[in-house]
Amino acid sequence: MPEKYEREIEEILRRMSYPTQSRRRRSAGWLGDLSTIWRRYTSDVSPTQLLVLGIALAFFGYFVRAFIPALGFPLSLLALACLVGGLALSMRQRNSQRPSVWRGETIDLSNGDWWSNLKQRWDDWRRHHG
How far apart are the first and last CA of the chain? Predict the structure, then answer.
């Protein structure tokens, strides 16, 4: 019996390490490649971190410009790139189709009667908690 399980595990691992043709997606050209690279590098960076880095680089570039003028311009361009990237990340996350969740429960705002439902819940809570 254990040999059977070992063979199944080995087969599963082999299939995972060599993806089949059906699991591979065709690239959408250079835009698809650029999108993949962008997602890979920005997966663990939050928009706030990128915006703060951009602002810090802008201030640093402003003060460095007085001492090393050749370094001020590239730092300012890098700051601008960070600010634009942070804005793009923020917009991408805002437009994603995440359901509205409050305290672990999905909020359905499609029902036009949500205000009366909220008022009813508030009245029930007030009745029980004094």
Answer: 63
Instruction: Give, in order, the Cα–Cα distances in Å from 34 to each of 37, 40, 66, 126.
Output: 5, 10, 36, 54
| Residue 12: CB atoms within 10 Å | 10
SS3 of 124, please? helix
Q: What is the pLDDT of residues 73-82, one digit of tens each?
A: 899 999 999 9
DSSP codes, 24-72: -----THHHHHHHHHHHHHTT--HHHHHHHHHHHHHHHHHHHHH-HHHH
Segment 95-118 shows an average pLDDT of: 69
DSSP tag of 105: E
Among 3-7, 13-17, 92-96, name the most confident range: 3-7
What's the pTM value of the predicted model, to 2 decimals? Answer: 0.45
CB distance 60 to 75 below 8 Å: yes
